[in-house]
Specification:
single chain; 764 residues; alpha+beta; Aminopeptidase; 3 domains; ten-stranded mixed beta sheet; seven-stranded mixed beta sheet; 26 strands; 20% strand
Length: 764
């Protein structure tokens, strides 16, 4: 009994260790050596950068830019700005202002570029994590680097971009327009998609990653969190960072460093100085300093490679790397060792066919039941708590408690199922099915998702455990627990990473992983006679976590409800409406929309990042607003095409203009404030194969006008619909909208707290 308890404690220790090794547990203070990175010193900058929301075009945005320039100049660096119009691949036009400086190296060659962005999300976010944390990491890292008077071998370019939140516009401007772009050999980009947790390293490259990963390992950051599976998944998602522009437009390699936990703070008013996890900022610094030291002197002209490496992190060994070319030999070796051990087990009578085949029943049942229960339970919880739908992030404030719930429940299910198959001396037979299924899983990974092929590593240790089981009827459970360390330490973080990174809809994947890991741990748990009792303990713990999640399922000042409200004035019909994107109305939105608002139906107009449009509307009084000036000042026919120019000048302080047109309309050419709209190819049409009627969104700076020139077939009647928006609904005295309660915040990812004017422009 004591040995079983020790074995369980060892497994718990390995789990805790696997998480403790992911990031620092304390921060460096103000007394830290001048040549070292200090999180406390970086926080001084962050406090100044996150005083107010600073989306592009706001006064606070200018103040943040001026602060960064002043701090760079205090370090003795000569700064410059780069300004110009840019349109993103998502159709967002902006006029960003980038901040640049350069440290001259001792040798010619490619430069190292340090990258982050200083604009916050366009509405309400203070931008402390995203990406104030990246900016201050660079500022403090540079101070520490320069404090020793060291001159690097390579030039070091510092680029703090603008309008990243709108569509990587600042990065687009630099990569495609600035003369320094051609000098860049490697980029280190610092980002955030939440306010806490470990910072994940993701490689950005158009070719193989082998030379980059070798350099990363040589730089030897203290807390590497990196695996080739995470990047394989990242490449499948629609998420981009500034580094994407470097890779796609400039064929320039780079490393992304981003923490992604506490995702519910992302792009909200909660992305502030107080909510930022200090250890996450420390983690960013722990990446920057060794990589800056190494790559400022490394050969950056030789990072291209045709060879990819598998990589993953684990305590002690830090980052393990090996070539993709090893995937199949390691897999074949795994199957070969497995076959030899099974044959050996039959020969010495430690395995028998009947019990071996029966061993597939509990393992496969655990996988299926855990996955189904995970999927059904989470969807049931979303039905029970419909207000979760208003958290667009897909991760609720009590999301971590739900992870614990599903993990405990899945472990309980596994213990309960395996309790039906207990038989003294049968553990070796029970261990066959999990190892065989894991080998098949690795085979599928090798074919479809090679970045996950390091899953074979825990299998090798499971094979070692099987060897011990076959040779000893009563092996030391302490030894078996130690053999299981690699499995637990590599796989445990994934159980949390999937729902944190991809949302709680992926909780069933965590349940599946628990069942898979439990199967390999049967080499230990197989000796536990009273598995049913342990299952009851796990079910009770799952119930306790579920109750805790329920208690914290509502909203309060620490976990406020996101909500939204807009006022829409239609100049074509001389009518006005209140609107919201919310699924569940609250007292604040009901004050304008009432208890029985009109359902808005489906529309792609003013839709959000996650394609959620206006949900409810109600007739509103018509307010006296200053309309935009609209002028068609050029209209001529040349050959088969009509060439038209339109000027739209805002007459009030606006933040955004959105232009819509029917998807059937053809535009041979389309230039917006001097920038060509995206085309699939040079011979094609602009805005071709649109999935919606939206043409583009213009994020306004300093009330600059919108001018667009376009060519259309001469017989085509063209109608545009303009939405001109200002984020001043709560401050405009005409509306007298009350402030939100402390338990509410503006909903992110949507046009919010906005006064919208709609006007149709017809080119007949």
């Amino acid at each position: 009994m004591i040995k079983k308890a020790i074995a369980i404690l060892l497994l718990i220790f390995a789990i805790i260790w696997s998480f403790k090794a992911l990031m620092p547990s304390k921060i460096s203070n103000l007394d830290t050596e001048k040549s070292k990175f200090s999180t406390a010193r970086a926080l001084v900058h962050l406090d100044n950068l996150s005083k107010a929301p600073h989306g592009i075009g706001t006064d606070a945005h200018t103040e943040v830019r001026n602060y960064i320039i002043a701090e760079l100049e205090k370090l003795g660096l000569e700064t410059q700005t780069q300004k110009g119009f840019s349109i993103s691949k998502w159709g967002n036009l902006a006029h960003p202002t980038n901040i640049l400086t350069r440290i001259k190296g001792t040798q010619p060659g490619k430069a190292l570029l340090l990258l982050s962005h200083y604009d916050s999300s366009p509405h309400s976010s203070y931008g402390a994590s995203d990406a104030g944390s990246g900016v201050v990491t660079i500022l403090e890292g540079l101070r520490a680097f320069l404090s020793e008077g060291r001159v690097p071998t390579n030039d070091i370019i510092i680029l703090i971009t603008d309008a990243e939140e709108l569509g990587l516009n600042g990065a687009d401007l630099f990569v495609n327009k600035h003369e320094w772009a051609k000098d860049v050999g490697l980029v280190l980009n610092f980002e955030a998609r939440g306010s806490g947790g470990p910072s994940y390293m993701l490689v950005e490259t158009n070719g193989g990653n082998s030379k980059m990963m070798k350099g990363f390992v040589k730089a030897n950051p203290q807390y590497p969190v990196a695996n080739s599976l995470a990047y394989s998944i990242y490449k499948m998602l629609p998420n981009d960072t500034d580094l994407t522009r470097f890779r796609e437009d400039g064929d320039i390699e780079g490393f992304n460093f981003a923490f992604i936990d506490d995702h519910y703070d992302y792009h909200t008013a909660l992305d502030n100085y107080e909510r930022l996890d200090r250890n996450s900022l420390e983690h960013q610094g722990s990446y920057l300093m060794p990589l800056l030291d190494y790559f400022s002197d490394a050969n950056l002209s030789n990072l291209k490679s045709d060879e990819d490496y598998i990589y993953f992190n684990a305590p002690v060994v830090k980052t393990v790397i090996y070539p993709f070319s090893w995937i199949w030999p390691m897999l074949v070796l795994g199957f070969l060792i497995f076959g030899i051990l099974v044959t050996y087990g039959f020969r010495n009578l430690r395995l028998n066919r009947k019990d071996l085949l029966k061993g597939f029943i509990p393992f496969l049942s655990s996988i299926v039941i855990c996955t189904l229960v995970g999927f059904i339970l989470w969807n049931a919880l979303k039905f029970i708590y419909p207000h979760y739908a208003d958290m667009s992030h897909g991760f609720t404030y009590n999301g971590h408690t739900y992870i614990w719930t599903f993990v405990m429940l899945s472990i309980g299910i596994c213990f309960y199922i395996y309790s039906k198959f207990y038989k003294p001396g049968n553990t070796a037979n029970l261990a066959i099915a999990p190892i065989f299924v894991w080998l098949l899983l690795c085979l599928v990974m090798a074919l479809e998702l090679p970045g996950a092929s390091f899953f074979i590593v825990p299998v090798f240790f499971a094979l070692l455990g099987l060897f011990v089981l076959i040779n000893q009827r009563k092996p030391s459970l302490i030894l078996m627990a130690i053999i299981a360390f690699p499995l637990v330490m590599i796989m445990s973080p994934f159980i949390k990473m999937f729902p944190v990174g991809l949302g709680l809809d992926i909780l069933f994947v965590s349940a599946l992983l628990v069942a898979l890991v439990f199967g390999l741990l049967i080499s230990i748990f197989g000796f536990f006679r009273h598995k049913k009792r342990l299952s009851y303990v796990m079910f009770f713990m799952a119930f306790c976590f579920l109750i805790a999640a329920h208690i914290n399922s509502g909203f309060d000042a620490l976990n406020p409800k996101p909500n939204s409200l807009v006022y829409m004035l239609d100049l074509d019909t001389n009518t006005a409406q209140w609107g919201t994107y919310d699924n569940e109305l609250d007292d604040w939105t009901k004050a304008q929309l009432g208890d029985d608002p009109n359902e808005a139906g489906t529309s792609d107009v003013i839709a959000s990042k996650y394609r959620s449009g206006i949900t409810y509307t109600r007739q509103a009084p018509i307010k006296t607003l200053v309309y935009p000036e609209i002028e068609v000042f050029k209209d001529s026919i040349i050959g088969d095409f009509r060439h038209v120019s339109v000027y739209i000048g805002p007459q009030r302080n606006v933040n955004r203009m959105d232009l819509y047109a029917d998807t059937q309309l053809l535009f041979k050419d389309f230039k917006i404030n001097g920038v060509e709209a995206n085309k699939m190819d040079d011979q094609g049409y602009a805005f071709q194969s649109r999935g919606s009627s939206r043409l583009f969104s213009y994020y306004v700076s300093n009330n600059e006008p919108l001018e667009f020139d376009f060519s259309i077939p001469k017989g085509q009647q063209t109608k545009f619909v303009l939405y001109e928006s200002s984020n001043d609904l709560l401050t405009d005295r005409q509306f007298e909208i009350s402030s939100r309660k402390d338990s509410m915040i503006p909903r992110p990812f949507v046009l919010n707290d906005a006064v919208i004017i709609k006007k149709t422009i017809i080119i007949e």
